[in-house]
Structure formats: structure tokens, C-alpha cells
């Protein structure tokens, strides 16, 4: 069993009187692909936001590679090696594909001006290496032929892939993907599954994904954590989750997800 890379312990988050996340505890081992699923409003995005330091937890801790990263800020979390993608394509539309990837490279040097000057995590950008690194990332993500195109001109599926490329440019050890398959057609979905497997198998990445596309989750994930109304109701291998009565009642049995 490989060691845990991410360990979330007793994580809670309130918004006024609403408890969006209640004492969530789970781990992701090095090299695993884990799915975080649940119905709309279950707290999945809140969990991502708290883990990546976008919003502070009301209680609980987030440890990454043994270090406490609870409460962010996001720039520190990225420098620690944890990157995320967003539900919607989140690139700069007027900037070229290569320029967007370069933006990701810059953020591995902590967000502050001082951080950029001193170059934390050995992340100093040697100017001569920048184009080669951008090309390597575009090759992995199959976007090389779009290198100089404005990001906004890419088909939606490729814009989402560019979001992954930007996250890869931070040189993460772990990627958190928020609904990477949303809005993708069948072929794009298969392509995404191939890319995510490649990132794990050949680039050693650990992945946590929030996703409503159950066929993709069941096929790709080694383990699944199920949230309902902010609480973890189940955790296990896909075949166990698929047959779990509480999960079927709260989520998988709902008409929208009946294809699972
Ligand atoms: N900034 C906020 N202020 C107030 N309430 C919030 C905020 N962010 C989320 N919530 C509430 O917290 C709960 C969990 O929301 P969250 O977006 O985390 O769910 P989700 O599982 O990601 O849902 P979806 O699958 O629809 O994206 C919801 O009731 C939501 O309305």
C-alpha cells in the first residue's frame, strides 16, 4: 500500500447556518485515482475549495505529503504540489494556448512578487527552458497543433483540456479535477479518460476528481468517496459503491444518474 499523499481530517465548512461540509475524513494514496461523487449541493466543490485553500475550513485539517496546508492560501497549496482545474473552462480566451500554459508555469513560483524573485520550491523559470517545457506539456495533452491559437478559438472540449495543461504547468504531484467531463461528447470523454490514465501511469500523478459522469467515474477510479448533504455516506471500490443501498437511494438511483 502506497503512502497517503492527501489526508483530509474532520473537514467542516459552514456558510452562515448552512453546513456545506460536515467532518469529512478521507485519504488519497500516492498514484491513486479517487472520485468524489454525490448529488447537486452535496458539498463536493466546497470540499475542493477548502482543500485547495480557496476558502478556509470552519474546522479540520488538510495534510499534503505530511504537511499541514489547511487554510491555504491557494498559491502556497500550488507550490506544495497540489493543482486544480475548474468546472468551466478557465483560460484567458484572447491569450494563446502557449501563453496560457506559461501562466500556469508562473504560478508554481509563489504568488507574491518576492516569491517570484526568490523562486520558491526550486521553481525558478530558466527562460531558455520555457518553450521546451510548454511544448512538452502541449504534447502530453495533445494540443501541440493549437500552440499559437487564441485559447478562446478552441472547441469547448479542447478548452477544458487546456485547463488541465495549465494545471500541469504548475508541476503538480496531485491534480484535483472539478467535473472534467462536463459538456464533453462521447469521444472527448474517452479521450479525457486516456489522458487521465496517462498522467497517472506515465507521469506519476495522483488524481482526485469530482464528476457526475458515472460511467467515467466507475471506469477510471480505484476508489470512490460519496458525499450527501455535506457528509460522507460511503467510501469504497466502484463495484461496492455501485451496489451500496444508501448510495443508490441518495444518488445513483435518481433518474438523472440511472445510466450509472
Ligand atoms: N459561497 C457560498 N455561500 C453560501 N452557500 C454556499 C456557498 N458555496 C456553496 N454553498 C452551499 O453549500 C452547499 C454545497 O455546495 P457545493 O457547490 O459544494 O455542492 P456540489 O456538491 O459541488 O454541487 P454541484 O454538483 O451542483 O456542483 C450548497 O447548499 C450550496 O448552496
TrEMBL record:
PROSITE patterns: ABC_TRANSPORTER_2. SUPFAM superfamilies: P-loop containing nucleoside triphosphate hydrolases. Residues 6-254 form the ABC transporter domain. Keywords: ATP-binding, Cell membrane, Membrane, Nucleotide-binding, Transport. One of its GO terms (molecular function) is L-isoleucine transmembrane transporter activity. PANTHER family: AMINO ACID ABC TRANSPORTER ATP-BINDING PROTEIN, CONSERVED COMPONENT OF ABC TRANSPORTER FOR NATURAL AMINO ACIDS-RELATED. It comes from the Bacteria. One of its GO terms (biological process) is D-alanine transmembrane transport. This is Branched-chain amino acid transport system ATP-binding protein. It holds the Pfam family BCA_ABC_TP_C. GO terms for cellular component: plasma membrane.
Amino acid at each position: 500500500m502506497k503512502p497517503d499523499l492527501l489526508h483530509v481530517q474532520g473537514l467542516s465548512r459552514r456558510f452562515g447556518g448552512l453546513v456545506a461540509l460536515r467532518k469529512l475524513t478521507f485519504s488519497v494514496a500516492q498514484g491513486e485515482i479517487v472520485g468524489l461523487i454525490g448529488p447537486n449541493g452535496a458539498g463536493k466543490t466546497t470540499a475542493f475549495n477548502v482543500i485547495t485553500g480557496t476558502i478556509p475550513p470552519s474546522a479540520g485539517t488538510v495534510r499534503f505529503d505530511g504537511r499541514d496546508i489547511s487554510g491555504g492560501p491557494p498559491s502556497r497549496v500550488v507550490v506544495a504540489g497540489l493543482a486544480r482545474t475548474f468546472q468551466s473552462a478557465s483560460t484567458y480566451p484572447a491569450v494563446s494556448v502557449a501563453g496560457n500554459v506559461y501562466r500556469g508555469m508562473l504560478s508554481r513560483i509563489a504568488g507574491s512578487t518576492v516569491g517570484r524573485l526568490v523562486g520558491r520550491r526550486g521553481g525558478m523559470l530558466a527562460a531558455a527552458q520555457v518553450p521546451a517545457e510548454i511544448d512538452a506539456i502541449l504534447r502530453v495533452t495533445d494540443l501541440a497543433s493549437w500552440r499559437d491559437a487564441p485559447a478562446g478559438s478552441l472547441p469547448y472540449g479542447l478548452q477544458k483540456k487546456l485547463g488541465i495543461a495549465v494545471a500541469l504547468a504548475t508541476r503538480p504531484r496531485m491534480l484535483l479535477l472539478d467535473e472534467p467531463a462536463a459538456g464533453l461528447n462521447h469521444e472527448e470523454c474517452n479521450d479525457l479518460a486516456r489522458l487521465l490514465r496517462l498522467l497517472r501511469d506515465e507521469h506519476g500523478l495522483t488524481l482526485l476528481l469530482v464528476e457526475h459522469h458515472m460511467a467515467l467515474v466507475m471506469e477510471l477510479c480505484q476508489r470512490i468517496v460519496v458525499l450527501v448533504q455535506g457528509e460522507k455516506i460511503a467510501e469504497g471500490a466502484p463495484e461496492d459503491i455501485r451496489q451500496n443501498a444508501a448510495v443508490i437511494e441518495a444518488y445513483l438511483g435518481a433518474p438523472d444518474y440511472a445510466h450509472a
